[in-house]
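Running this now, will post back.
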Amino acid sequence: MNDINKQELLNLKKLAEGVGQFIRYWGFRQIHGEVWSVVYLAPAPLFGYS
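Update: finished.
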């Protein structure tokens, strides 16, 4: 994630927190919504097979 600037990272964090709060409304844990949104919006795979 070296190509993401600080403002984009803060925006992603705010969005992930909002998604987490929405997911919590549906009975899931907030952190699951945050992780799911970060994984979905990642510009490149976060991990993989080499």
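The radius of gyration is 12 Å. More later if anyone needs it.
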